[in-house]
Design brief:
There is one protein chain. The protein is an alpha+beta fold. 26% of the residues lie in helices and 33% in strands. It has helices at residues 12-27, 87-100, 116-121, 135-138; strands at 4-8, 46-53, 56-67, 70-78, 106-112, 125-126, 144-150.
């Protein structure tokens, strides 16, 4: 993989590119509508990060501040050609570094069973609670796990 750059979204065009990537990777394979992300939005400040290789968007992460000291990773997606090459790790590491400087002590997510192993490698553990069930995903064998990581200050 070419040198990767991780940065916050810097324009409306970049945000639209990120939306398209999320749909292509996370929802289109399951037949979900192009605007499905709108149904997943939360209140609270949104953090959108992009991963670029040679100026081309190849990955992204969306998180929301859920309290003044907690952030939830909502979505993380990578183009297939850069998966399993460290881009996801770099996105999550960048997020942790950024939000820890802003007072975050806990990052949590609702991980698909297909990504729970990745989050474990990143230091996340199973969190208490009941994960959601989504019939659109369940029929494809996708289940969910609540996960969290305590952030060192």
């Amino acid at each position: 993989m070419d040198k990767l750059t991780i940065a916050p979204v810097s324009s409306k065009t970049e945000s639209k590119e990120l939306d398209h990537l999320l749909w292509e990777v996370l929802w289109k394979p399951f037949g979900l509508s192009r605007n499905v992300r709108d149904s997943f939005k939360l209140d609270g400040e949104c953090v959108e990060l992009v991963a670029k290789a040679n100026g081309r968007l190849v990955g992204g992460l969306v998180a929301n501040w859920t309290t003044p000291s907690e952030v939830e990773i909502r979505h993380i997606a990578l183009k297939p050609e850069v998966q399993n090459q460290g881009a996801g790790r770099q996105l999550v590491t960048f997020l942790i570094s950024t939000v820890s400087r802003q007072g975050c002590f806990r990052i949590h997510t609702v991980a698909r069973n297909t990504s729970a192993g990745f989050f474990r490698k990143m230091g996340f553990k199973t969190a208490h609670g009941t994960p959601p069930e989504h019939s659109d995903f369940k029929k494809h064998g996708i289940t969910f796990e609540l996960m969290e990581r305590i952030v060192e200050q």
